[in-house]
Amino acid sequence: MSDPQNGERGGGVHSKLRLYLWIYGTALVFIFISILLIISFGFINSEPGERCCPAAYSCFSLGLICLFVYVNVMFLRRKFPVNWILSCCMAVLFGLGTASMLPEQTAGHVVLLALEVIVMMGLLLLLGYWLPAKCHPLIYIALTSFCLAIVMYVLCKIISDHSPEYTETADVWISHCVLWTVACPMLLFQSHVINGYWSSESPYLDIPLCAVLLLIDFLACYAFLDAVEEVDYAFENLFSSRTIQLLVRVGRSEM
């Protein structure tokens, strides 16, 4: 006679594996389509370096409105194939918005940045898969994020100490470390939700929604990494002596 517990355990493993394949497989398909859109917009852009901001604003606004309605109307999240159609539409809107927002992108640049984001997201989501016994998910997220922050701080310290001057390369690497330190708790939380650590059941009925949220994470990280130089330039100007003196003068004049 077969052991019922082993059968239930085997069925649970297979159902979880099926859940992961659906969520992460769908997210990878959405990401691949977004990468193609970003590369395509780089080729068809007649003015290199220029962004199509009105198109980006329109796509992001429509995508966010659809996401808000989709999340709050349970009928849409539970009705097949309406949930998949809406999720695919939102994925295309967010992909088009990101592609319109970015300047001209070469294929090599897009592939390298996309690989970095996919690998780092995969590692952080994999960290969220493992949860020690009798450990609250929030405590695990806090401890893991703190450990990663220490590792990233050490890396930033090594990079800055081994740079004769504060070069652009060191600045870029430090910005990458800061991004993944900030993204760590969010991705761990999403991984815990997918694995059912925050509720009694895994989100079988919200597979399209989970895939769209992972796509949004990817696009946000990609856009930040693509604009690292601009972000660093903005922070340098923000904390420059001239800006500080200007703020002091404005504060005195208001007093």
Written account of the structure:
This protein is an all-alpha fold and 255 residues long. Helix 2 packs antiparallel against helix 4, helix 5 (107-129) crosses helix 7 (168-195) and helix 7 runs antiparallel to helix 8. The protein has one domain. It has helices spanning 4-44, 53-72, 74-78, 82-101, 107-129, 137-161, 168-195, 207-226, 228-238, 241-254. The protein contains ten helices and no strands. The protein starts with a helix and ends with a helix. Keywords: Membrane, Transmembrane, Transmembrane helix. The chain crosses the membrane at residues 21-43, 55-75, 82-102, 108-131, 138-160, 172-193, 205-225.
> What is the terminal separation in angstroms?
85 Å
List SSEs in N-to-C order.
HHHHHHHHHH
Proportion of strand residues: under 5%
- What is the count of β-strands? 0
* Helix content, binned percent: over 70%
Low-confidence parts lasting 5 or more residues at pLDDT below 50? Answer: 1-10
Q: Count the DSSP helices.
A: 10
* Structural class category: mainly alpha
* Mean pLDDT figure: 79
Query: How can the largest sheet be summarized?
Result: none
In total, how many domains does the architecture comprise?
Answer: 1
What Rg, in angstroms, do the CA atoms define?
22 Å
- Shape, principal axes of CA atoms: flat
Keywords: Membrane, Transmembrane, Transmembrane helix
